[in-house]
Amino acid sequence: MQIVFDDTQLGHRPSNFLVRGRLKPVPEVPARAEILREAAERAGHRIVKPTTDSTKLRARIHTADYLAFLETGWSRWQELPDASPEMIPNVHPDRRDAPYPDAIVGQAGYHMADTAAPLAGDSWSAIRASADSAAHAARLVLDGAKAAYALCRPPGHHAFADQAGGFCYLNNSGTAAEALREAHARVAILDVDLHHGNGTQGIFYCRGDVLTLSIHADPAAFYPFFWGYANERGDGEGAGFNRNFPLPLGTGDAAFLDALDAALAVLRDYRPGALVVALGFDAHESDPFAAFKVTTRGYGEIARRIAALGMPTVLVQEGGYVSPDLGSSLVAFLAEFSTLPQ
């Protein structure tokens, strides 16, 4: 399988964020991408650099104000007296219909949902390259590949149309879905990350042309807390086209696979022309988040059931942090798709 990755993505090196009020190192580090890339190469997959420009695609799912903020916000932040080396919000609006502020401090609060998406000098180029990787993987599938894997870093599924959060800035899975929509009337996004894909849900919540499905830890007790409940089904033209499958902390292979079967039944009924898998490995039993107990073998079975759909598929990397099983989980997952004719 072709693995799409650009070394530019390694330039984004956020340092700290708040966890229960304490400053902690950001786990979304360049090493996780390097582990995944090296594991894929050892397994015989071919790494290709993206040549697809995602500019027009990301403009379809993100607002112009937000894109301008991501591109220029850090340099404007540095013009402030005594500014920190990374842009991190310290104030948020009490409502999202408040006036849009001119000051960069206010814009940071408006466009950043939490402290877990700091921006530094090399962040924008890495964020852009990550979205380009998703767009290029989608282009490979549109050009005839049965599946392609975008090694996106930073990830994207917590990014809304106008808001970053949870280590995410541009919605890479949404970018891939927009690319696939150029050839398919209906596209589905299946999110198997530990965390709910709240940004993806928000972007497509009122649309019927992109079905969004997410299997994740119950937000009643886990990030992102405010989205991801089973009663969130879409609105307007999107009514019925968003489905969430929240699971209790400690979930292992059997319960996760049961939820996957339920999600796949909804997906089959929808009959999309192509599929995006928002692929997270943070549900693994050895992941630092330690919230689920999915095994490496379990990831292989998740992949087998998805691959059995026989659908043109773009795999987009989301979460999954540095652990002994990160690389092997990817290899087990890709092995099921690599048996498909490319």
Write the layout of secondary structure elements.
Elements: E1 2-4, E2 16-19, E3 22-25, H1 30-42, E4 46-48, H2 55-61, H3 64-78, H4 104-111, H5 123-142, E5 147-150, H6 172-181, E6 187-191, H7 198-204, E7 210-217, E8 242-247, H8 253-270, E9 274-279, H9 296-307, E10 313-317, H10 326-338
Parallel strand pairs: 1-4, 1-5, 5-10, 6-7, 6-9, 7-8, 9-10
Antiparallel strand pairs: 2-3
Helix pairs in contact: 1-10, 2-6, 3-4, 5-6, 8-9, 9-10
Specify the biggest β-sheet: 8 strands, parallel
CATH classification class: Alpha Beta
Strand content: 5-15%
CATH superfamily: Histone deacetylase domain
Query: What kind of assembly state do the chains in view correspond to?
Result: single chain
Mean pLDDT metric:
97
- Find the CATH topology: Arginase, Chain A
Helix count, DSSP H or I runs of 4 or more residues: 10
Question: How many whole angstroms does the radius of gyration measure?
Answer: 18 Å
Please list the strands of the largest sheet in the order they lie side by side: 4-1-5-10-9-6-7-8
> How many strands?
10
**Helical coverage, percent range:** 25-40%
**Principal-axis shape:** globular
Integer tally of domains: 1
Summing up helix and strand content along with how strands pair, one would put the structural category as: alpha/beta
